[in-house]
Amino acid sequence: MITGTGFVGGNIAAKFVDEGVSVTALDLKPKVLDFLEAAEKSRKLSFAKGDTRSFRLIEELVKAEKPRILIHTATFLNPTEAYDTFEVNVRGTANVLELARRYDLTMVYLSSGAIYGQMNGTADICEDEKFGPAYPPREGIDNVSGAPYCMSKRLGEEWVAMYRALYGLRAVALRLAWVYGRGITDYRLNTAISLFLRKAIVKEEVHIPYGGDTFVDFVHVSDVADIVYNAATLPVPKDFAFNVAYERGSRFSELIDVTKSVVPGAKLSLGPGLWPSKGVPIPRGGPSFPSERHMSIERAKASLAYSPKFDLEAGVRNYLQWIEKNWDISSPEAVPFPKWG
Ligand SMILES: NC(=O)c1ccc[n+]([C@@H]2O[C@H](COP(=O)([O-])OP(=O)(O)OC[C@H]3O[C@@H](n4cnc5c(N)ncnc54)[C@H](O)[C@@H]3O)[C@@H](O)[C@H]2O)c1
Q1: How far apart are CA 127 and CA 172, in angstroms?
Q2: Which range among 20-24, 239-243, 269-273 shows the weakest confidence by mean pLDDT?
Q3: Whose CA is nearest to atom 32 of ligand 1?
Q4: For a pocket test of ligand 1, which of 2, 3, 5, 8 has the largest count of ligand atoms closer than 8 A to its C-beta?
Q5: pLDDT band, very low/low/confident/very high, at 141 (cuts 50, 70, 90)
Q6: 325 Cα: distance to centroid of ligand 1 (angstroms)
């Protein structure tokens, strides 16, 4: 069973079906993307409409479907709604977790690199490092949506870790970097990779005098789906939390170069410096805390056989194919560009 079959959950569902596993997908608003259509038709994937905030509802589903694995991706993200962020990301997690305990399910909790908060320095971030502050937002750098989201992921992870320690629950937490690839259908089409690609496709020129030095740990959604599958099916590792990124991070200037190489004729340029958090619509991503630090993936490689396949160029090329194929839902007519550039 997968809670939340949005961007990441949808790709995880496809991975499990490809591996021969039947999947029940629970979502507030189930959405069948093109790469899930065949699985749904063949009934290897079934969708259920429901809310993780309702323990009774999801318990009924677990009783009916009898899953053995529970992948928890359902999440709420809205910069101004700390209360709902708590309700879905913390209470919803507590519900799912209690079900995993009662019905003896292996659980994978989708956490986030945002959990680290405001980190100084440049060395790679390891999982056991002390988290930085979550708030207040640093003027001109952090997005205001960061703090409630970051806190909700910290609380959620702690609650899962406690169940593992107290009840012997088979559970791991995966702290994802900034994920990109097929299946993005919402406001994130106006962030970083998606935005630059869409501007390049419509041959719109983008010349911005800042932002090129912004550092981001990008990870392709296919690599995320692979490690979720490993985490759910390998023996429970000694460690609980794992970073999930690519081998290294990238600066926006590199992203611009990659975009120009995969979309010939694209006219894009960024000047030096960081992308500010206010004043211009984001391509930086809502929840992410800016950091100069890459999340080390050594632990995931050693314990979860993690082996990311998509470097930035291969990943963006792969994503471009999906956007072009799904232009009806990816075009500026479907999701208008922000008013800048
Ligand atoms: N996308 C990223 O870059 C990224 C980075 C780090 C961590 N993550 C984590 O990965 C997970 C999945 O993220 P995503 O990008 O797929 O998000 P998403 O918004 O695309 O998908 C989340 C899904 O959860 C559903 N949902 C929300 N509230 C629900 C509820 N109460 N009950 C049932 N379903 C509900 C939504 O309808 C949506 O389909 C999240 O836990 C997120 O924190 C994502």
Answers
A1: 13
A2: 269-273
A3: 51
A4: 8
A5: confident
A6: 23
Amino acid at 261: S
Q: Which whole number is the average pLDDT over 98-118?
A: 96
Q: Ligand 1 — pocket residues by CB below 6 A?
A: 3-9, 26-29, 51-53, 73-76, 88, 92, 110, 112, 176, 178-179
| 58 CA → ligand 1 middle, Å | 17
Give the distance (Å) from ligand 1 centre to CA of residue 270: 30
Q: Is the pLDDT of residue 323 over 70?
A: yes
Rounded Cα distance between 101 and 299, Å, is: 26
Task: Write down all domains in the chain, each with its CATH number in brackets.
Answer: 2-185+217-247+293-310 (3.40.50.720)
Percent of the chain at pLDDT exceeding 90: 79
Q: Does the pLDDT at position 287 exceed 50?
A: no
Query: Strand (E) positions, the chain?
Result: 2-3, 23-27, 45-49, 69-72, 106-112, 171-176, 178-180, 206-211, 215-216, 218-220, 241-244, 250-251, 268-271
